[in-house]
Design a protein that fits this description.
The complex is a heterodimer of chains A (377) and B (249). Chain A is α+β, with helices and mostly antiparallel strands and 377 residues long. Chain A is built from 11 helices and 10 strands. The mean pLDDT of chain A is 95. Helices cover 28% and strands 27% of the residues of chain B. The chains are: A alpha+beta (377), B alpha/beta (249). Chain B: Belongs to the ETF beta-subunit/FixA family.
Chain lengths: 377, 249
């Protein structure tokens, strides 16, 4: 593994760092406090081309490679994890089209997604089907000239703000995962109902919705081929987990940087906190966890670009980086003491925002199943 | 008209500067580097002049280590057409940079040279003025507004007493103040396109100049820690302290 970052990767990191520090940072606290959707920050990223980071040239993107993309995602999460979550949810939707769509679907939709004109949402999870998507109950039945889609999805990031949703549904209820197909659903289709956004522990600027469907879709709404939905979703999640790992690293790095700066400044018993061994060891542990999380993330990103299967690497990265982010953000609160607990500083927000990374796009337990099966196969 | 824009690689303005433990220099280990903010304003102004049809070509130039190509690439992503890198690992100060830039001006014959008024690392505020002296070109420093009319350049300068407007004959040298413009962000697709734009790498000896500083850096100290303030009970006490302790009255 080559540890030298390419010029592209450095340039992407710089560009993301800049907009994150100057635009996203200014909005992050407000989004968290008011629960407003991260519209301004997300649109600022769209104007600068960030919505197309996952797409190749042929579809309006400019695929800089997964390491450059991971670094950019990390920078976005550093100042606003909520915006990062909405951005990566958009990638799940566009990755679904990229991996599962027909050539015509890709040509028609993806350039608009890359340029920041169309926002996507990825609708897989249901109240009774999270870690077990094969048990989903949303279904699409053939009806003259198209499909009749019925069912309920929940925890759908971007939901009511998305221009289109990629909805996974059973097209053959006699089959398990092989009976799942994916559909492109325009947000304004008659028969879609959005709940009000869920109230959440963290990522409050990135809304998640319950969505119910009872709608008629055209023949062209079927994404790619019938029965391929599950394979597409799993491949999309392999890619998405690298982004969750990068997001975890971003939140963790923010918590670590703030803790180190705080420990240098805050004086207790006549010397800075960082000169007390108890605190120094906490910082050492945070630093080590962070560096290790970065490496597994970059390794998974490199594997993602290698063209082969990378389910194992992405599961390792997602598991390790999200668990590390939980430990690091928890330690950050501890290093800050009472100041970490009050809402004036962003420390408690990092702690809340990091929590979901161990749950979404496959819980830590699901990652262990993936890793366990891969290494014992 | 061709515009030459000089850019410098400095520590990112968000980074808290730390001095090396042995006080030999500022610590640059694992420190985020970026384009000097005044240079960003210079690039932005050049791009705006090109957007207005005043400029036809923008050439970005830097004097510095190999890694400074990152900043040239940013300039290319922001709208420069090509770049010149005068590569050196030596510690370069204002005069060395100005000498190298003078040679580039001689070779490129730009109609306008735009530089930041100063770099946020050592804040010398000299390179533009020295370049003007070395090239014999008229200069408008601390510009808050720039307008080109034919072969004339109107430069509004921010000076101590207010604003001063100069008319210079092109070719000329302008250094930018903070309020000249608000620089745009680089778009990711433009960053990818930037790598296809030409970058010419030269050494100081190719240009026939010596850029290494003749000044020896002896010691770097961080600024003294600021002491906490006090509250005074009365105006009399305040005046007394200003007179006898602070000795400012």
């Amino acid at each position: 593994m080559n540890f030298e970052l390419t010029a592209d990767a450095i340039a992407f990191q710089d560009a993301a760092h800049r907009v994150s520090a100057e635009v996203l940072k200014a909005n992050a606290k407000r989004y968290d406090e008011t629960g407003d959707f991260c519209r301004e920050s997300l649109d600022a990223l769209g104007e600068l081309g960030f919505w197309g980071m996952n797409l190749p040239d042929a579809y309006g993107g400019f695929d800089p490679g997964s390491i450059a993309m991971s670094l950019a995602v990390e920078e976005v999460a550093y100042h606003c994890a909520a915006t990062c979550s909405s951005l990566t949810a958009h990638f799940l939707a566009t990755d679904s089209v990229l991996l599962g769509g027909t050539e015509q679907q890709k040509q028609e939709l993806l350039p608009l997604c890359a340029s920041g004109e169309k926002l996507g949402a990825f609708a897989l999870t249901e109240p009774g089907a999270g870690s077990n998507p094969a048990e989903m109950r949303t279904k699409a039945v053939r009806r003259e000239g198209g499909w009749h889609l019925t069912g309920t999805k929940h925890y759908i990031t971007n939901g009511a703000y998305a221009d289109f949703l990629v909805v996974y549904a059973k097209t053959d209820e006699t089959q398990g995962h092989k009976g799942i197909s994916a559909f492109l659903v325009d947000r304004h289709t008659l028969g879609i109902q959005f709940s009000s956004p869920e109230k959440t522990l963290g990522l409050r600027g990135s809304h998640i919705y319950e969505i119910s469907f009872d709608c008629q879709l055209s023949e062209a709404a079927l994404l790619g081929e019938e029965g391929q939905g599950f394979a597409t979703a799993m491949a999309v999640l392999d890619r998405g987990r690298v982004e969750v790992a990068a997001m975890s690293v971003g939140i963790a790095r923010a918590a670590y940087d703030d803790s180190l700066a705080w420990a240098r400044e805050r004086v207790v018993a006549g010397k800075p906190l960082c000169r007390h061994q108890g605190i120094q060891w906490m910082l050492a542990e945070m630093h080590t966890q962070l560096e290790a999380a970065k490496l597994v993330t970059y390794q998974a990103a490199a594997a993602r670009d290698s063209g082969g299967r990378f389910s194992l690497e992405s599961a390792v990265a997602k598991l390790f980086a999200s668990e590390a982010a939980a430990k690091i953000t928890d330690s950050a609160v501890q290093v800050h003491g009472g100041y970490g607990y009050i809402c004036d500083l962003p420390i408690e927000r990092y702690y809340r925002d990091a929590r979901i990374t161990r749950i979404f796009e496959g819980t830590s337990e699901i990652q262990k199943i993936i890793i366990g099966r891969a290494i014992t196969a | 008209m061709k515009i030459l824009v000089a850019v410098k690689r400095v520590i990112d303005y968000n980074v808290k500067i730390r001095v090396k433990p042995d006080h030999s220099d500022v610590d640059l280990t694992n420190v985020k580097m970026a384009m000097n903010p005044f240079c960003e304003i210079a690039v932005e102004e050049a791009v705006r002049l090109k957007d207005k049809g005043v400029a036809t070509e923008i050439v970005a130039v830097t004097v510095g280590p190999k890694a400074a190509q990152e900043q040239l690439r940013t300039a290319l992503a922001l709208g420069a057409d090509r770049a010149i890198h005068v590569e050196t690992d030596a510690r370069v100060e204002s005069l060395g940079a100005a000498k190298a830039l003078a040679k580039v001006v001689e070779a490129e014959q730009p109609g306008l040279v735009i530089l930041g008024k100063q770099a946020i690392d050592t804040d010398n505020n000299q390179t533009g003025q020295m370049l003007a002296a070395l090239t014999g070109l008229p200069q408008g420093t601390f510009a808050s507004e720039v307008a080109v009319e034919g072969d004339k350049l109107q430069v509004t300068r921010e000076i101590d007493g207010g604003l001063q407007t100069l008319e210079l004959t092109l070719p000329a040298i302008v250094t930018t103040d903070l309020r000249l413009n608000e620089p745009r962000y680089a778009k990711l697709p433009d960053i990818m396109k930037a790598k296809k734009k030409p970058m010419d790498v030269k050494s100081p000896s190719d240009l026939g100049v010596e850029v290494a500083s003749k000044v020896k850096l002896l010691k770097v100290e961080p600024p003294a820690e600021r002491q906490g303030g006090i509250k005074v009970g009365s105006v009399d006490e305040l005046v007394d302290k200003l007179k006898n302790e602070a000795k400012v009255l």
